[in-house]
Amino acid sequence: MLETHDLCVEYDGAVALQSLNIRVDPGEIYCLLGANGAGKTTLINAFLGFVEPATGSVHVNGLDVSRYPLESKQGAAYIPEQVMLYSVLSGIENLDYFAALATGRRLPKARLMALLVQAGLSEEAASRRISTYSKGMRQKVGIAIALAKGAKALLLDEPTSGLDPSAANEFSLLLRQAASRGVAILTTTHDLFHAKQTGTRIGIMRKGHLLVEFDSVAVSHEELEAAYLEHMRVMQ
Amino acid sequence: MIGLIARRELLEFIRDRRLFWAGGIILLLLAIALLVGWQQQRTLNAERAAAQQLDYDDWVSQAERHPHDAAHQGMHVFKPEAPLAVVDPGITPYVGSTQWLQAHRQADLKFVPAQDATGLQRFGNLSVAWVLQVLGPLLVIVLGFNAFAAEREQGTLRQLMSIGVTPQRLLLGKALALSVALALLLVPAAVVIAFVSLSGLEAGLQYDTLMRLLVLFAGYAIYLSIFIFLTLAVSGRTSTSRIALMALMAVWITGVILAPRAISDLADRWYPTPSRVEFNNSMDQELSKTYADAWQASFGVSTRWGADLPLNRWGEALQVDDQAGYLVADRHFAELWGAFDKQRQLQEWSGLVFPVLALRSFSMGIAGSDFSAHRDFSLAAEQQRRLMQDLISHDLIHHADVLDHQHFTYKADSTLWKQIPPFDYRLPTMEAVLPANIRSLGILSLALLVSFVLALASVPRRA
Description:
The complex is a heterodimer of chains A (236) and B (463).
Chain A: E1 2-11, E2 14-24, E3 29-33, H1 40-48, E4 55-60, E5 63-64, H2 69-74, E6 76-79, H3 91-103, H4 109-118, H5 123-126, H6 135-149, E7 153-157, H7 165-180, E8 184-189, H8 192-198, E9 201-206, E10 209-215, H9 221-235
Parallel strand pairs in A: 3-8, 3-9, 6-7, 7-8
Antiparallel strand pairs in A: 1-2, 1-4, 4-5, 9-10
Chain B: H1 2-15, H2 18-60, H3 67-73, E1 75-78, E2 98-101, H4 113-116, H5 119-123, H6 128-144, H7 149-154, H8 156-162, H9 167-198, H10 203-237, H11 241-270, H12 276-299, H13 314-350, H14 355-367, H15 371-398, H16 414-417, H17 430-458
């Protein structure tokens, strides 16, 4: 579960997040929409403990991130827009490394391979160096790391940005599979279609505020688009 | 976790071939330095031992002659090279190796190898110590300059921190990786160095040399560890690998190349030492006065070797002359060597900021090629000279011409020459040498602590 209470974050006096209350329950995929600078990445950073709240609190799986910075990370996994891995290592070696660091124990090679395959990577690709990987393949390794970790919360920062439609669709499927296992997922995106398609709830942020939330089943594509454009117009 | 981080780093060193190329060059230079040093030392020690034996044979096989003539011929003694001079020749190329033990005067050592060297050699001798002191830090920099900077550039630092890797563990993992990489290169090299240094030594000297080697290796391990943490500190502070490399190169040039020369000049300015001519002139002036006073007090004459003193008292006069001169020479040499000691101390303490200075002092001290070793040999040689002078003076007194007109007709034979034993110089033991070098080791350890704290403070805490 991911949760914030009256969260305020400031950068050198400039407000990045203001009295933000958000909650992502297990099995939920929360898609956060907003223009650049809305505070989406700052919110992800707050969950990861990369920024300190000026006021309020941030909780991951019930743990206050400020008080339990390491423990809170153990139950969460992070997948950025560009999953950063070691280019001189292969996919399976990267997974081996990050999974072992995250869990404190090394997994057998067969298990690592199974995780990569589960994330949608072929065995042949898993043994190749990361320098030969596409963006989508890197993200699959990111998903495999999250799977290996057994993370109960998933934080994704614009994960489908730059992916071709097929890869984006494949990725959405993986997220839904994770959610069906009870993982709480928070993902930021600019892609309204992806948000409606993948999310169970959708929030729109602007200037550090959460303006509105939708149930993705209850809202239509048109209503979501209209709401988004209206809020962006207000901003302009 | 630390082991995992270290393992990945090592894999990267191996796969991007940095370890192979940078380490290979260092190993090649070490091998050349060791081979050349070993060959030179083997030849030199054999030649010096043979020369000293020949010189002593000449001494004992002298024909019958006046003892004072024999004292003027004197004998030559040759400084043996310490076994570990093959690793660190220290000041050996810049000081003499041969001392002429002759009447009246304490001499400094002659035949300075650097004077016979080519201009290129004078720039710096290739030795195992030089490679480790100067190029060792460069190897650490090449391996570790991008330790944090590249993680930041590639975004993997953010990935690592997102899974709960603490900056401290990251630092220790990277430090361990660099240490293991260096160990992979240098431990086999150390075994070869030990084998070469110990081969052909007698058992007692072998044990002493082995102990010295172990302490020496510990000193170098501390020195390279300082650079490991400095490199990680700079890499942790800088935003890109390029800036990290440039900053570290500046640190290397300043700390390893320029600082030793600058501090050496500074030490010479703060604790000046006279030139050879100035030193000799100053000692001669005081000796003249001291001799005159001694002659006045002993014989009531102020002119030395004049007609006022009967020839049959010249044996006594030589003894008075020598005894008075010993004190003056001892004081002048003590002052000169004291100034050298102060210069060394200043350089040692500068090691807190420029560790190469503390290491250099420590390394040549433990290797037995520093100024203390030079002084120890000079003192032993002077003891031998004084023994020779005192025996000859005593013999002249014993054979004083009672007729007072046949003084120079007296001739001693090999019975007297053989009373002077062969010069058997033993290098100081490890136990004798270690206390004088503990301070350098302490300074290096302190510098290691400082660099570790610096690295801890510099390691990135936010992605």
